[in-house]
Amino acid sequence: MRIFVARLAGTAVFDPAGDQIGRIRDIVAGVRPGQPPRVHGMVVEIQPRRRVFLPITRVRGIEAGAVVFTGRLNMRRFEQRATETLVLGQMLDLTVEVDGEPMIVYDLAIEEVRPAIWQITKVAVVKKRRRDPRIVDWREVSGLDTLQQDQGAAGLIAAFESMRAADLASALHALPDKRKIEVAAALDDVRLADVLEELPLSDQMGILGTLAPERAADVLEEMGPDDAADLLQDLPDEQSARLLALMEPREAAPVKRLLTYDEKTAGGMMTTEPVILPPSATIAEALAQIRQKDLPPAVAAQVYVTRAPNETPTGTYLGVTHFQRLLRDPPSTLLGAVIDASLDPIRPDLPLPEVTAYLATYNLVAAPVVDELGQLVGAVTVDDVLDHLLPEGWRDGG
Protein backbone atom coordinates (compact mmCIF):
# COMPACT_ATOMS: atom_id res chain seq x y z
CA MET A 1 0.00 0.00 0.00
CA ARG A 2 1.40 3.38 -1.06
CA ILE A 3 0.61 6.39 1.13
CA PHE A 4 1.48 9.99 0.31
CA VAL A 5 2.85 11.69 3.40
CA ALA A 6 1.23 15.12 2.99
CA ARG A 7 -2.15 13.44 3.36
CA LEU A 8 -1.12 12.03 6.73
CA ALA A 9 -0.70 15.46 8.33
CA GLY A 10 -3.28 15.76 11.10
CA THR A 11 -4.44 12.13 10.85
CA ALA A 12 -5.82 10.77 14.13
CA VAL A 13 -3.79 8.10 15.96
CA PHE A 14 -5.56 5.36 17.93
CA ASP A 15 -4.22 2.97 20.56
CA PRO A 16 -5.03 -0.77 20.62
CA ALA A 17 -8.17 -0.09 22.68
CA GLY A 18 -9.54 2.24 20.01
CA ASP A 19 -8.99 5.47 21.94
CA GLN A 20 -7.61 8.47 20.08
CA ILE A 21 -4.37 9.60 21.68
CA GLY A 22 -3.13 12.25 19.25
CA ARG A 23 -2.51 13.28 15.64
CA ILE A 24 0.28 12.76 13.12
CA ARG A 25 2.45 15.85 12.70
CA ASP A 26 5.35 14.44 10.68
CA ILE A 27 7.18 11.35 9.45
CA VAL A 28 10.77 10.65 10.52
CA ALA A 29 13.11 9.10 7.96
CA GLY A 30 16.76 8.34 7.46
CA VAL A 31 18.11 9.62 4.14
CA ARG A 32 21.43 8.23 2.90
CA PRO A 33 23.01 8.65 -0.57
CA GLY A 34 22.34 5.72 -2.88
CA GLN A 35 19.93 3.98 -0.51
CA PRO A 36 16.13 4.17 -0.30
CA PRO A 37 15.10 6.57 2.49
CA ARG A 38 13.89 4.41 5.36
CA VAL A 39 10.99 5.44 7.58
CA HIS A 40 11.87 5.33 11.28
CA GLY A 41 8.50 6.36 12.66
CA MET A 42 5.96 9.12 13.15
CA VAL A 43 5.86 12.29 15.23
CA VAL A 44 2.59 12.22 17.15
CA GLU A 45 1.27 15.25 18.98
CA ILE A 46 -0.62 14.46 22.16
CA GLN A 47 -2.23 16.93 24.51
CA PRO A 48 -1.10 19.31 25.80
CA ARG A 49 1.08 20.08 22.76
CA ARG A 50 3.61 17.35 23.47
CA ARG A 51 5.30 15.59 20.53
CA VAL A 52 6.30 11.99 20.99
CA PHE A 53 7.80 9.35 18.73
CA LEU A 54 5.84 6.38 17.41
CA PRO A 55 8.20 3.75 15.90
CA ILE A 56 7.01 2.52 12.53
CA THR A 57 7.36 -1.06 13.84
CA ARG A 58 4.44 -0.34 16.21
CA VAL A 59 2.10 0.81 13.44
CA ARG A 60 -0.52 -1.86 12.84
CA GLY A 61 -2.50 -0.12 10.15
CA ILE A 62 -2.86 3.13 8.20
CA GLU A 63 -6.35 3.69 6.89
CA ALA A 64 -8.40 6.66 5.72
CA GLY A 65 -8.36 9.12 8.59
CA ALA A 66 -6.74 6.79 11.13
CA VAL A 67 -3.42 5.30 12.21
CA VAL A 68 -3.61 2.38 14.66
CA PHE A 69 -0.63 1.16 16.68
CA THR A 70 0.14 -1.77 18.96
CA GLY A 71 1.95 -1.89 22.28
CA ARG A 72 2.57 1.17 24.44
CA LEU A 73 3.51 4.68 23.38
CA ASN A 74 6.63 6.17 24.96
CA MET A 75 5.62 9.57 26.35
CA ARG A 76 9.16 10.98 26.31
CA ARG A 77 9.36 14.13 24.23
CA PHE A 78 10.51 13.56 20.64
CA GLU A 79 13.99 14.81 19.87
CA GLN A 80 15.23 14.66 16.30
CA ARG A 81 18.59 12.98 15.82
CA ALA A 82 21.30 14.37 13.56
CA THR A 83 20.86 11.43 11.18
CA GLU A 84 17.09 11.89 10.89
CA THR A 85 15.01 14.03 8.56
CA LEU A 86 11.44 15.26 8.99
CA VAL A 87 9.67 14.34 5.76
CA LEU A 88 7.06 17.09 5.90
CA GLY A 89 9.10 19.69 7.70
CA GLN A 90 12.37 19.34 5.79
CA MET A 91 11.87 17.41 2.53
CA LEU A 92 8.83 19.12 1.05
CA ASP A 93 9.81 22.02 -1.24
CA LEU A 94 13.35 20.74 -1.79
CA THR A 95 14.79 21.55 -5.22
CA VAL A 96 15.96 18.25 -6.71
CA GLU A 97 17.03 16.97 -10.10
CA VAL A 98 15.06 14.48 -12.19
CA ASP A 99 16.64 13.50 -15.51
CA GLY A 100 18.99 16.46 -15.12
CA GLU A 101 16.13 18.94 -14.78
CA PRO A 102 15.42 20.97 -11.59
CA MET A 103 12.12 20.07 -9.92
CA ILE A 104 10.37 20.89 -6.64
CA VAL A 105 9.28 18.14 -4.21
CA TYR A 106 5.64 18.57 -3.27
CA ASP A 107 4.95 15.12 -1.75
CA LEU A 108 6.56 11.77 -1.02
CA ALA A 109 5.05 8.29 -0.84
CA ILE A 110 5.91 5.62 1.72
CA GLU A 111 5.33 1.88 1.34
CA GLU A 112 5.75 -1.19 3.50
CA VAL A 113 8.31 -3.09 1.45
CA ARG A 114 8.65 -5.90 4.00
CA PRO A 115 6.79 -6.59 7.25
CA ALA A 116 7.35 -3.56 9.53
CA ILE A 117 9.89 -2.09 7.05
CA TRP A 118 8.69 1.14 5.42
CA GLN A 119 10.58 3.17 2.85
CA ILE A 120 10.07 6.29 0.77
CA THR A 121 9.55 4.78 -2.66
CA LYS A 122 8.04 7.54 -4.79
CA VAL A 123 8.53 11.29 -5.01
CA ALA A 124 5.96 13.70 -6.41
CA VAL A 125 7.71 16.57 -8.15
CA VAL A 126 6.69 19.62 -10.13
CA LYS A 127 8.61 22.05 -12.34
CA LYS A 128 9.18 25.54 -11.03
CA ARG A 129 6.37 27.96 -11.94
CA ARG A 130 4.44 25.19 -13.70
CA ARG A 131 1.72 22.76 -12.71
CA ASP A 132 2.72 19.53 -14.42
CA PRO A 133 3.22 17.09 -11.54
CA ARG A 134 5.10 13.86 -11.98
CA ILE A 135 5.48 10.87 -9.69
CA VAL A 136 8.89 9.27 -10.03
CA ASP A 137 10.83 6.52 -8.31
CA TRP A 138 13.17 7.70 -5.55
CA ARG A 139 16.13 6.39 -7.62
CA GLU A 140 15.40 8.98 -10.30
CA VAL A 141 15.77 11.85 -7.82
CA SER A 142 19.04 13.44 -6.75
CA GLY A 143 19.25 16.04 -3.99
CA LEU A 144 16.95 14.59 -1.32
CA ASP A 145 19.86 14.51 1.11
CA THR A 146 21.06 18.05 0.37
CA LEU A 147 20.73 20.99 2.77
CA GLN A 148 19.44 23.96 0.77
CA GLN A 149 19.54 27.62 1.71
CA ASP A 150 16.42 28.88 -0.10
CA GLN A 151 14.08 25.93 0.10
CA GLY A 152 10.72 27.65 -0.06
CA ALA A 153 7.66 26.45 1.85
CA ALA A 154 4.65 26.30 -0.48
CA GLY A 155 4.28 22.51 -0.24
CA LEU A 156 4.65 22.47 3.53
CA ILE A 157 2.09 25.24 3.92
CA ALA A 158 -0.31 23.38 1.62
CA ALA A 159 0.06 20.23 3.73
CA PHE A 160 -0.80 22.21 6.88
CA GLU A 161 -3.44 24.42 5.25
CA SER A 162 -6.43 22.89 7.08
CA MET A 163 -4.76 23.08 10.51
CA ARG A 164 -5.90 25.49 13.18
CA ALA A 165 -3.45 28.31 13.86
CA ALA A 166 -2.48 26.71 17.19
CA ASP A 167 -1.64 23.40 15.48
CA LEU A 168 0.34 25.09 12.74
CA ALA A 169 2.20 27.03 15.44
CA SER A 170 3.05 23.76 17.18
CA ALA A 171 4.31 22.30 13.89
CA LEU A 172 6.35 25.43 13.20
CA HIS A 173 7.86 25.40 16.70
CA ALA A 174 9.16 21.87 16.12
CA LEU A 175 10.97 22.75 12.89
CA PRO A 176 14.66 23.65 12.64
CA ASP A 177 15.26 27.42 12.73
CA LYS A 178 16.03 27.50 9.00
CA ARG A 179 12.62 26.04 8.13
CA LYS A 180 10.81 28.29 10.61
CA ILE A 181 12.19 31.32 8.80
CA GLU A 182 11.29 29.92 5.36
CA VAL A 183 7.73 29.05 6.40
CA ALA A 184 7.21 32.44 8.08
CA ALA A 185 8.43 34.19 4.93
CA ALA A 186 5.95 32.22 2.78
CA LEU A 187 2.86 32.71 4.98
CA ASP A 188 0.63 35.69 4.24
CA ASP A 189 0.43 38.42 6.88
CA VAL A 190 -2.92 37.34 8.33
CA ARG A 191 -2.00 33.67 8.69
CA LEU A 192 1.41 34.53 10.10
CA ALA A 193 -0.19 36.87 12.65
CA ASP A 194 -2.58 34.11 13.75
CA VAL A 195 0.31 31.67 14.10
CA LEU A 196 2.55 34.11 15.97
CA GLU A 197 -0.17 34.59 18.58
CA GLU A 198 0.06 30.87 19.38
CA LEU A 199 3.85 30.56 19.49
CA PRO A 200 6.14 30.78 22.52
CA LEU A 201 7.64 34.23 23.03
CA SER A 202 11.13 33.10 21.96
CA ASP A 203 9.76 31.95 18.59
CA GLN A 204 7.73 35.14 18.19
CA MET A 205 10.76 37.31 18.76
CA GLY A 206 13.00 35.15 16.59
CA ILE A 207 10.61 35.15 13.62
CA LEU A 208 9.75 38.84 13.90
CA GLY A 209 13.47 39.63 13.92
CA THR A 210 13.93 37.93 10.53
CA LEU A 211 11.25 40.02 8.83
CA ALA A 212 11.88 43.36 7.19
CA PRO A 213 10.70 46.08 9.62
CA GLU A 214 7.89 47.16 7.28
CA ARG A 215 6.54 43.62 7.02
CA ALA A 216 6.95 43.05 10.76
CA ALA A 217 4.78 46.14 11.35
CA ASP A 218 2.16 44.82 8.89
CA VAL A 219 2.04 41.50 10.75
CA LEU A 220 1.69 43.26 14.11
CA GLU A 221 -1.27 45.19 12.67
CA GLU A 222 -2.97 41.87 11.86
CA MET A 223 -2.44 40.51 15.39
CA GLY A 224 -4.90 41.21 18.18
CA PRO A 225 -3.84 44.44 19.91
CA ASP A 226 -3.33 42.60 23.21
CA ASP A 227 -1.08 39.98 21.58
CA ALA A 228 0.85 42.64 19.69
CA ALA A 229 1.33 44.61 22.91
CA ASP A 230 2.57 41.52 24.76
CA LEU A 231 5.14 40.90 22.04
CA LEU A 232 6.29 44.52 21.77
CA GLN A 233 6.63 44.71 25.55
CA ASP A 234 9.35 42.06 25.44
CA LEU A 235 11.29 43.50 22.52
CA PRO A 236 14.16 45.95 23.05
CA ASP A 237 12.77 49.47 23.52
CA GLU A 238 14.38 50.78 20.34
CA GLN A 239 12.96 47.97 18.18
CA SER A 240 9.53 48.25 19.78
CA ALA A 241 9.39 52.02 19.20
CA ARG A 242 10.47 51.61 15.58
CA LEU A 243 7.80 49.03 14.83
CA LEU A 244 5.10 51.12 16.50
CA ALA A 245 6.15 54.07 14.36
CA LEU A 246 5.83 51.96 11.21
CA MET A 247 2.32 50.75 12.07
CA GLU A 248 -0.71 52.63 10.79
CA PRO A 249 -1.72 55.19 13.47
CA ARG A 250 -5.21 53.69 13.77
CA GLU A 251 -3.75 50.21 14.37
CA ALA A 252 -0.99 51.44 16.69
CA ALA A 253 -3.26 53.51 18.96
CA PRO A 254 -4.87 50.61 20.91
CA VAL A 255 -1.50 48.85 21.20
CA LYS A 256 0.07 51.98 22.69
CA ARG A 257 -2.79 52.22 25.21
CA LEU A 258 -2.28 48.62 26.28
CA LEU A 259 1.43 49.20 26.78
CA THR A 260 0.64 51.76 29.49
CA TYR A 261 -0.84 49.06 31.77
CA ASP A 262 1.00 46.52 33.87
CA GLU A 263 1.10 43.17 32.05
CA LYS A 264 -0.67 41.23 34.82
CA THR A 265 -3.64 43.54 35.27
CA ALA A 266 -7.00 43.65 33.54
CA GLY A 267 -5.74 46.51 31.34
CA GLY A 268 -2.62 44.61 30.37
CA MET A 269 -4.50 41.43 29.45
CA MET A 270 -7.63 42.82 27.80
CA THR A 271 -8.58 42.93 24.15
CA THR A 272 -9.52 46.36 22.88
CA GLU A 273 -11.83 44.90 20.22
CA PRO A 274 -14.85 43.34 21.93
CA VAL A 275 -18.29 43.48 20.29
CA ILE A 276 -19.75 46.93 21.07
CA LEU A 277 -23.12 48.31 19.98
CA PRO A 278 -25.36 51.25 20.96
CA PRO A 279 -28.58 50.69 22.97
CA SER A 280 -30.60 51.50 19.83
CA ALA A 281 -29.21 48.45 17.98
CA THR A 282 -31.45 45.40 17.70
CA ILE A 283 -30.84 41.82 18.80
CA ALA A 284 -30.74 40.90 15.09
CA GLU A 285 -27.82 43.31 14.60
CA ALA A 286 -26.04 41.93 17.67
CA LEU A 287 -26.40 38.35 16.45
CA ALA A 288 -25.03 39.37 13.06
CA GLN A 289 -21.96 40.82 14.79
CA ILE A 290 -21.18 37.78 16.93
CA ARG A 291 -21.81 35.45 14.01
CA GLN A 292 -18.57 36.54 12.32
CA LYS A 293 -16.45 33.40 11.94
CA ASP A 294 -13.12 35.08 12.74
CA LEU A 295 -14.41 36.22 16.14
CA PRO A 296 -13.00 34.14 19.04
CA PRO A 297 -15.75 32.28 20.95
CA ALA A 298 -14.96 34.04 24.24
CA VAL A 299 -15.30 37.45 22.58
CA ALA A 300 -18.52 36.42 20.82
CA ALA A 301 -20.17 35.35 24.09
CA GLN A 302 -21.11 38.90 25.11
CA VAL A 303 -22.12 42.19 23.52
CA TYR A 304 -21.22 45.42 25.33
CA VAL A 305 -23.66 48.31 25.14
CA THR A 306 -22.32 51.87 25.26
CA ARG A 307 -23.08 55.41 24.18
CA ALA A 308 -21.26 56.67 21.10
CA PRO A 309 -18.51 56.33 20.11
CA ASN A 310 -18.75 52.55 19.95
CA GLU A 311 -15.02 51.90 19.62
CA THR A 312 -12.71 51.76 22.61
CA PRO A 313 -12.43 53.99 24.52
CA THR A 314 -16.19 54.29 24.10
CA GLY A 315 -18.80 56.67 25.35
CA THR A 316 -20.51 55.88 28.65
CA TYR A 317 -20.64 52.16 29.38
CA LEU A 318 -24.26 51.01 29.90
CA GLY A 319 -23.97 47.27 30.44
CA VAL A 320 -23.63 43.89 28.81
CA THR A 321 -26.00 41.46 27.17
CA HIS A 322 -25.17 37.77 27.00
CA PHE A 323 -25.42 35.48 23.99
CA GLN A 324 -28.06 33.31 25.68
CA ARG A 325 -30.26 36.35 26.34
CA LEU A 326 -30.00 37.35 22.69
CA LEU A 327 -31.43 33.96 21.71
CA ARG A 328 -34.42 34.26 24.05
CA ASP A 329 -35.87 37.56 22.85
CA PRO A 330 -37.37 38.61 19.49
CA PRO A 331 -34.81 39.81 16.90
CA SER A 332 -36.42 43.25 16.75
CA THR A 333 -35.88 43.92 20.47
CA LEU A 334 -33.55 46.82 21.22
CA LEU A 335 -30.37 46.02 23.14
CA GLY A 336 -31.19 48.75 25.65
CA ALA A 337 -34.06 46.54 26.84
CA VAL A 338 -31.96 43.39 27.45
CA ILE A 339 -28.95 44.81 29.29
CA ASP A 340 -27.71 42.89 32.30
CA ALA A 341 -26.93 45.69 34.75
CA SER A 342 -26.38 43.34 37.71
CA LEU A 343 -22.69 42.86 36.96
CA ASP A 344 -20.30 45.66 37.78
CA PRO A 345 -17.41 46.10 35.33
CA ILE A 346 -13.80 45.82 36.45
CA ARG A 347 -11.13 48.50 36.42
CA PRO A 348 -7.99 48.37 34.24
CA ASP A 349 -5.67 48.19 37.26
CA LEU A 350 -7.37 45.11 38.77
CA PRO A 351 -4.61 42.50 39.33
CA LEU A 352 -4.65 39.03 37.76
CA PRO A 353 -5.77 37.08 40.88
CA GLU A 354 -8.80 39.33 41.31
CA VAL A 355 -9.68 39.16 37.62
CA THR A 356 -9.56 35.37 37.86
CA ALA A 357 -11.76 35.40 40.97
CA TYR A 358 -14.26 37.71 39.24
CA LEU A 359 -14.65 35.41 36.23
CA ALA A 360 -14.93 32.33 38.47
CA THR A 361 -17.43 33.94 40.87
CA TYR A 362 -19.86 34.91 38.14
CA ASN A 363 -19.16 31.97 35.78
CA LEU A 364 -18.14 34.29 32.95
CA VAL A 365 -15.91 33.81 29.92
CA ALA A 366 -15.33 37.57 29.56
CA ALA A 367 -15.57 40.73 31.65
CA PRO A 368 -15.93 44.41 30.65
CA VAL A 369 -13.07 46.75 31.61
CA VAL A 370 -14.19 50.33 32.32
CA ASP A 371 -11.96 53.27 33.23
CA GLU A 372 -12.50 56.03 35.82
CA LEU A 373 -14.45 58.09 33.23
CA GLY A 374 -17.01 55.32 32.77
CA GLN A 375 -15.70 54.42 29.30
CA LEU A 376 -15.38 50.84 28.10
CA VAL A 377 -11.69 50.37 27.25
CA GLY A 378 -11.74 46.64 26.56
CA ALA A 379 -12.73 43.19 27.76
CA VAL A 380 -10.75 40.47 29.52
CA THR A 381 -11.52 36.99 28.20
CA VAL A 382 -10.86 33.68 29.90
CA ASP A 383 -8.19 32.75 27.35
CA ASP A 384 -6.31 35.97 28.18
CA VAL A 385 -6.35 34.96 31.84
CA LEU A 386 -5.26 31.39 31.14
CA ASP A 387 -2.29 32.66 29.11
CA HIS A 388 -1.01 34.37 32.26
CA LEU A 389 -1.96 31.62 34.73
CA LEU A 390 -0.35 28.72 32.90
CA PRO A 391 3.33 27.98 33.60
CA GLU A 392 5.93 29.70 31.46
CA GLY A 393 6.72 27.55 28.43
CA TRP A 394 3.31 25.89 28.22
CA ARG A 395 3.05 26.73 24.52
CA ASP A 396 6.04 24.55 23.71
CA GLY A 397 4.86 21.75 26.02
CA GLY A 398 7.23 22.79 28.79
From TrEMBL:
List the keywords (alphabetical).
CBS domain, Cell projection, Cilium, Flagellum
Q: Which GO terms describe its molecular function?
A: magnesium ion transmembrane transporter activity
Q: Which GO terms describe its cellular component?
A: membrane
Tell me which residues make up the CBS domain. Answer: 339-397
Q: Pfam families from the xrefs? A: CBS (PF00571), MgtE_N (PF03448), SH3_actinomycetes (PF26205)
Q: What is this protein called?
A: Flagellar motility protein MotE (MotC chaperone)
> Whose protein is this, by species?
Nonomuraea dietziae
The organism's taxonomic lineage, starting at the top: Bacteria, Bacillati, Actinomycetota, Actinomycetes, Streptosporangiales
